[in-house]
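Re: beginner question about structure tokens

> Can someone show what the tokenized structure looks like for a real chain? I only ever see the sequence side.

Sure, here's an example I had lying around. Input first:
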Amino acid sequence: MVSIGLSEFLIVVMVGLVLVTVVVVARATEKQRRERELRAEQERELLPPDDSGPPPLS
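And the corresponding structure tokens:
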């Protein structure tokens, strides 16, 4: 039977926590990117097609 010491166990736990953190941050970043793209697309749809907004106030 293979037994690992406390230091090896702690190293494995720390590596696991780092990997989980990387995955969570990557997923959150991707979600934010998708939301920004969706908002930008919705804003483009709301703009007038020829960018002729209301006349400037004088």
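Each token stands for a local structural state, so reading them left to right follows the chain. The chain has a mean pLDDT of 87.
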